[in-house]
Amino acid sequence: MALHQVTDDFIAYTKAIGARLELEETTAFLVIAATLLDLKAARLLPAGQVDDEEDLALLEVRDLLFARLLQYRAFKHVAEMFAELEATALRSYPRAVSLEDGFVGLLPEVMLGVDAHRFAEIAAIALTPRPAPTVATEHLHELMVSVPEQAEHLLAMLKARGSGQWASFSELVADCTAPIEIVGRFLALLELYRTRAVAFEQSEPLGALQVSWTGDDAERSDEKERRL
After folding, report:
1. Average model confidence (pLDDT) for the chain?
2. Which CATH homologous superfamily contains domain 147-227?
3. Residue 130 in contact with residue 175, Cβ under 8 Å?
């Protein structure tokens, strides 16, 4: 397109929008138009090496404006497509007629094989809301372990051996049926050790723990501590 034609188009459009747009919008349009005309004129001149920073900045502005113009062209094309589709849809009407005879017998009638009563029962089952899924916990059994009871049981076992006789921790928990019982007996041993009813011995780190009865009951040891 010739440069003078582009210039005339810009001037005509500026006069047309002058009364409708604000001063800031008109100024922005004039800046873009002037930049495009400058770039259009630069392309008509012989090509040469660009050394001026202002010229390089104009080239960057040109690339940005070209990208915006491509976007504008794409949006304009899509708008024209929508306008065409809208105009075509306004001339369309739904076909409110029955099915033609040639297509009536293509599919056989649906045979359910049940009467109306059975069909109603099936529909009621299908439409009934299903209960929310839940996680069953009935199969979980949490064993309750009493630390004082385990302490009494340990004292009875150690007293049966005698004072000063050692028993390993493995021997003391040999009759346990659940890990929680082992934990309960270990806590009971710590409580008995606190009251000086039992003594511990371990020959090496992480070695077998040996336990013996000191000859004192836990109740008497607690009474001694209270007196002290």
Report:
1. 78
2. Structural maintenance of chromosome 1. Chain E (1.10.10.580)
3. no
